[in-house]
Amino acid sequence: MKKFFPIGIATLFAVLFAGYGIWALWDSAREDGRDEKQLKVAATFSPLYDIAKNVAGEYANVELLVPPGASPHFYEFSPRQLANLQGTKAIFAIGYGADDWVTKAKEAIPGSEITLVDQGIALLSSLEEHGEEGEARDHGPIDPHYWLSFENARIIADTIARKLGELDSEHEADYRENARVYGQELSLAEHEIKEQLSTLESRNIITLHDAFYYFAQNFDLHIVGTFEPRAGEEPTPQFLARLREEIQTNNIKVLFAEPQMNSESLRQFAKDNNLALSLLDEAGGVEGRDSYIGLMRYNGNAISQALK
Ligand SMILES: [Zn+2]
């Protein structure tokens, strides 16, 4: 009896494990089945992700690629993330250098396509609109920050609705309706921020990198200059001398740093020149600005506080 006892226990465990194994397999198949039925898409970074989620509603699954609080411009996929993304049909992206790292996903995720959301948007040129003459910009000749305007956000929502409808025709009308309702929310928020910024003392601002020209156009602000000649590039003393002249001429009192970019030199420059500091955010994703509208309100508030 004693001799057979361990075998009895072993058998019992074997049966239990086998039973658990079968249950686990059934359970994961059930979950996969549920996910497989629903369209799976992704968006490169937070504001775009939020717009896509509003349009997708309950009908499609949207994944976020850049973790909240990280810069959208510099990013690398982890192998684990690529594994999680298998089955993704469309990845919504901005393009033009904003999130070009996403092109790597196309090969790594068979059956996926990258959908730029720029259709129908009046793109600004970095060179002509706000670059130094003849100077190459980090982002290329098109300024990619077009998501930072409400008008463009409405166009982006419609583009996403069209794409989701193509991939999942059963819910085509639902996606269109979601985009319409969300478009109204965007218009309301835009109207409120315009009101808030209608009585500013000054409309002149200096930002850290060249992210806010579409935002400035939306709210009738004037970007006098950027602290970095190109995104992520330290300014030379000559560049700063010119910037100091602009600050004098335009009576600038505040500089805008950014949460995802290294702002140390800008902080020092502000201190040396007796300028106040505020913050503008191109990517959000963190508490208080995790939605697109929250991000735009945050930037509106920052400008309203700084220039009142
Ligand atoms: Zn940027």
UniProtKB/TrEMBL annotation:
What GO molecular-function term can you cite, just one? metal ion binding
One Pfam family name from the record?
ZnuA
One GO biological process from the UniProt record?
cell adhesion
The UniProt transmembrane annotation reads 7-26
**Record carries keyword Transmembrane:** yes
Q: Which InterPro entries match?
A: AdhesinB, Bact_metal-bind_prot9, Lipoprotein_PsaA-like, ZnuA-like
Alphabetical keyword list = Membrane, Signal, Transmembrane, Transmembrane helix, Transport
What SUPFAM superfamilies does the annotation carry?
Helical backbone' metal receptor
- Family recorded in the similarity comment: Belongs to the bacterial solute-binding protein 9 family.
Instruction: Cite the PANTHER family for this sequence.
Output: HIGH-AFFINITY ZINC UPTAKE SYSTEM PROTEIN ZNUA, HIGH-AFFINITY ZINC UPTAKE SYSTEM PROTEIN ZNUA-RELATED
Protein's name in the database: ABC transporter substrate-binding protein
Organism this protein belongs to: Candidatus Wildermuthbacteria bacterium RIFCSPHIGHO2_02_FULL_45_25
Q: What is the lineage of its organism?
A: Bacteria, Candidatus Wildermuthiibacteriota
